[in-house]
Amino acid sequence: MNITFVVAMLDEAQPFIDNFGVREVPDFFSPLPCKLYRARLDAETELHVVLNGQQHGSDLVGCEPACVATQAAIQRLNPDLVINSGTCGGFRSKGADIARVYLGNGVMFHDRRVPGDDEWGTQALGNYDVWNGTGALAERLNLPVGKVTTGSSLDMQPCDLQIINENGGELKDMEGAAVAFVCSLYHVPILLVKSVTDLCDSSAETFEEFRRNLARASEELCRVNVRIIEELRVSGLGLRDNEV
Ligand code: ADE
Fold first, then answer.
1. How far apart are the CA of 178 and the centre of ligand 1, in A?
2. Which helix (H) or strand (E) holds 223?
3. Burial class of residue 10 in the structure, from the number of CB atoms within 10 Å of its CB (0-12 exposed, 13-18 middle, 19+ buried)
4. How far is the CA of 46 from the centre of ligand 1 (A)?
5. Could you tell me which of 31, 54, 46 has the C-alpha nearest to residue 77?
6. Whose C-alpha lies nearest to ligand 1, atom 5?
7. Distance (Å, rounded) from C-alpha 25 to C-alpha 92?
8. Residue 174 CA, ligand 1 centroid: distance in Å
9. Across the 244 residues of the chain, what is the mean pLDDT of every consecutive 10-residue run?
10. What is the pTM of this model?
11. Of the candidates 24, 34, 148, 149, which lies 20 to 30 Å from 176 by C-alpha distance?
12. Atom of ligand 1 nearest to the CA of 174
C-alpha cells in the first residue's frame, strides 16, 4: 500500500515527518519546488510526504501549488491513497473548536462564482468525491467529519460565506478541493484530514489566530495521522484491493 500525504506547509507536516522518520529525497521533483519525504513502514506499506515547497521565501499555499504538487505526486509515486492533511478555519456555530481534527466527508470550492447554467455552476463548486472509506475510518477512530470548503484566500468575503452556507461547507481551507480535483482526474482516492487553527465566526483576527494555534493544531493533526496510518496498516479498509 502506497500512502502519499500532500501538505502545504512544513509547519503542518513537521510533527509527523519526525514521528514517522520519513527522510527527504533531495531534488526528487526538480525543477518543481515540491519536496518528497519517504519511508518504508513495513513490507506492505510505503509512506510519502509531499510538500508544495517554497517561493518568495515562504511555503507555497493555495490551490495552484496544491494542484502542481498533487499532479507531480500522482505521476511520480502512483499512490493508492492521497491524504491531504492540513489546517483549516472552522465555525463555532457548526461545532468546531481549536485543534479539533476532522475527516472531510465532502469537498468543494467557495470562491469560484461562475454565473450561467447548472453545468458551469456545478463545475465551479467542484463537489468532488472523497475516498469511500472515509466514513468507516471516522467511525473506527471516533473522529468528527465535515465538509471541506476551499478558496484562494485566508479571509472570507460575504459572498464566500453565502456560498459556504448554501452548500454545507464547514472546514475552510486553501487546498483541499484543488488536491481533490487532481485526484478526480486520475481516479485516485483522496482522504482529507483537517485540524482547526481559527474560527471564522469569532471576532479574532484570522491570521493572528492561525499563527497562535498553528503548532498546537499541527500536533493534533500528527496524532490523528498516526492513528490513521496505524488503522490503514491493520485493516486496509479496502485499499489493498487496489494493489497491483
Ligand atoms: N487555513 C487555516 N485557517 C484557514 C482559514 N480561515 N481559511 C482558509 N485556510 C485556512
1. 14
2. helix 206-235
3. middle
4. 30
5. 46
6. 89
7. 40
8. 6
9. 97 97 97 98 95 98 98 98 98 97 98 86 95 97 98 97 97 98 98 98 95 98 98 88 49
10. 0.97
11. 24
12. 9
Query: Where would I find the H helices in 81-175?
Result: 118-125, 134-141, 158-166
Tell me if residue 44 is catalytic: no
End-to-end CA distance of the chain: 9
Question: Sign of dihedral through CA atoms 179, 181, 182, 183?
Answer: positive
Residue type, 18: D
Q: What does DSSP say about strands 2-7 and 81-90: parallel, antiparallel, or unpaired?
A: parallel
Residue nearest atom 9 of ligand 1, based on CA coordinates: 173
Catalytic annotation on 80? no
What are the structural domains, with CATH classification, of the chain? 2-239 (3.40.50.1580)
Residue 200 phi/psi, 5-degree rounding, is -65, -20
Contact predicate 150/63, CB 8 Å: yes
Cell numbers describing residue 20: 514517522
